[in-house]
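ok so I'm stuck.
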Amino acid sequence: MKKLILVTLFLTAIACQKKDQTEKPTTVADEHTFSKANLAVVKHLDLDIKVDFDTQTISGKASWQIDNISKGNEIIFDENTLEITKVTLGDDEKETKFKLGNEVEFHGKPLHITIEPNTTKVNIYYKTTKDAVALQWLTPQQTADKKKPFLFSQGESVWSRTWIPCQDSPAIRFTYNAKVTVPKDLLAVMSAVNPQTKNNTGVYTFKQDKAIPSYLMAIAVGDIEFQAIDNRTGVYAEPSMLKKSAWEFAELGKMVVAAEKLYGPYRWGRYDVLVLPPSFPYGGMENPNLTFLTPGVIAGDRSLTSLLAHELGHSWSGNLVTNATWDDIWLNEGFTTYVEHRIGEAIFGKKEFEMQNVITRKELTDNVAELGNTNPDTRLKVSLTGRNPDDGISMIPYVKGYAFLRVIENAVGREKFDVFIKNYFDAHAFKSITTEDFVKYINENLIKGDKTLADKIKLEDWIYKPGIPSNITTVNSADFDAIDKIQKSWRETGVKGLSQKVTTTSEKQYFIDHLPTDITPKEMEALDTEFNFTKGGNFIIKRQWFIPSIRYKYTAAYPAIEQFLISTSRTGSVMMLYKEMAKTSEGKVWANKIFDKAKSGYHATTVQAVEGILK
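replied:
not stuck anymore, here's the structure
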């Protein structure tokens, strides 16, 4: 899932209802789908659609192979803002009845379709509307090259139902084939095996033979070209971005090899990335075979490519083994953050690994402090009943999940834990599981009734209780210790030469995050002159620098802050700045002015999140 998805946080305390540990993934109660998969469930999708940029719609037919488990006379799909025009059954397309149920906020409507006991195929004819949250239609001016329009989708958490009628639950997996018709001068790509060049027909076919959940259905259409990195990795991007993107991701193949050494074979065939226009709302999205990526990672010095390690990690934790409900999202994001750090250690070394541990720990303590130590949203197993699942997600599942797995690693030793995780991935490959499935598995395969080990790990405290448990591991970095000393002396010795001592992205981020709380605008100007923070090309450094610039009224950075907020739609990053602005009345006025200019280029989820802050 996207790294840094910080959306409007609901602080209401909702008691956690633990599910029966024997519950099977295919029948788990998912509050965010209308489908009843225990009665009738989808198995395979044949999608035939046309992408129309003039009307900004997708239209066509979704043909679902189904298993009518109950031999009943109904199957239920999820849909949200779609226009359903006709439903037929079987290859002979016998027309059947359908009806839409009552609308539920965030969830859309149930699509009830009449079937027969022996029905194995349901064909749904439909069209998307302008209200499809999953689809972002860009004008040429909103792209990097500013020549041709662009379309991309974002299905997680419950938005795939706004562009395909589906059983929209992470517990329900299916394979798919697709035929996509687009304008002849554009290329279509999906979360599947992809073409690498444009053809002269505008018709492209796709195949995904690994069973995936609906949130990993993805499409992008635009003036896209491809460049290979090695025999199984490569980059898609707009022409002007292609060469610099391929250079930036030159170590992509090495990352895949490093991950395989740790956690077993990469099972998806190719691993490619697509660099999207700036309105993409996240750092990255782990769509199978084709990670969707923010252009903000193109720093020109390969300093931000660790984000790729996170999205690559999802090929094991998330895509291969998937959370069965959004209450269990830590299984996706906590495990992937752990895998990301381990890949990063293998590629970038132990010093960078230690620095990332410290940075991640600060994210955990900051998020718990913001939410409150007793807030139920600081548990790993959360309750999102009655809520938009996007709104209940903070950095907690990422960084608390990571901290929890480090506790287990510390308790049993890295070598033993590596074997456990690899076996865990193998045992649950291409399955969706609950937190309780994980608890059962770790008790049976690692803890094995050892009370001393169980007391060291404290599963219940980490998973079902809020806050930070007492047995969290310590983190430290000698490089950051050196920066702490610099922080204590630079005001006396001056800033000249500091940029030669604080050099990497992690070091600069740590330095900025620990500036004195009484720093003056004049001192910030001196630091800016030395490091070129405001005008530099590193997305993460600029974002971190702009927070104290707002807080301590370093007005020289204000034009760059405004440009930053207008030029990117990365939800978590822009929210950091809007939150800081909203702390003062004058800052809130400024934030609203910028938002008015920027929101036409933002993704719908980004708009929703920022509106939540500014209201």
